Design the sequence.
C-alpha cells in the first residue's frame, strides 16, 4: 500500500510511452478520444504505430482530435493511422452503424478502451431511445 507521502508526491514512472514496443498492425478503438485522457492515450498509441479509431459523437469532434494529434506529434516519426468512428453512446442505433463500418474496414480489434462517460446526467435527461435516466440515486 502506498504511503501518504508517495500519494501526494508520486515517484517518477518506471514505464513510459518511450518504453512501448512497436504497435504497427495493432488496432485500437478509444471511446471519448476527442479530449482528455482518451485523447492522450490515442496520441501515445498513434506514435507507437497503432491504428487508432477516434470514437466520438460527431465527425467534427473526431476530425478536430485527429488534426490536434497530428499537429502535436508532427516532429515524431509514426507509422500509425488515425481513423474516425462516429458513435453516440446515448443512441444505441449508432452502435450498430459504427460496428458495421468498423467490420467493413478491419479484420481484427486488439484493444477497446471504454473511456467515454457521463458522470451524472442532468435530471430529466433522456437517451435517444427515450429512456429517462434516474437522478441522484433514484431507481430506474
Sequence:
Amino acid at each position: 500500500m502506498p504511503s501518504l507521502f508517495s500519494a501526494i508526491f508520486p515517484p517518477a514512472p518506471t514505464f513510459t510511452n518511450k518504453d512501448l514496443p512497436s504497435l504497427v498492425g495493432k488496432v485500437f478503438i478509444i471511446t471519448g478520444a476527442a479530449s482528455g485522457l482518451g485523447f492522450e492515450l490515442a496520441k501515445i498509441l498513434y506514435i507507437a504505430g497503432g491504428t487508432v479509431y477516434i470514437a466520438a459523437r460527431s465527425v467534427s469532434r473526431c476530425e478536430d482530435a485527429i488534426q490536434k494529434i497530428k499537429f502535436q506529434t508532427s516532429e515524431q516519426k509514426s507509422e500509425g493511422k488515425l481513423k474516425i468512428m462516429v458513435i453516440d453512446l446515448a443512441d444505441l442505433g449508432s452502435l450498430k452503424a459504427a460496428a458495421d463500418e468498423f467490420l467493413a474496414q478491419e479484420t481484427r480489434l486488439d484493444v477497446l478502451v471504454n473511456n467515454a462517460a457521463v458522470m451524472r446526467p442532468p435530471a430529466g435527461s433522456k437517451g435517444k431511445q427515450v429512456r429517462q435516466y434516474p437522478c441522484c440515486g433514484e431507481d430506474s
In short: The chain has one domain: 22-140.
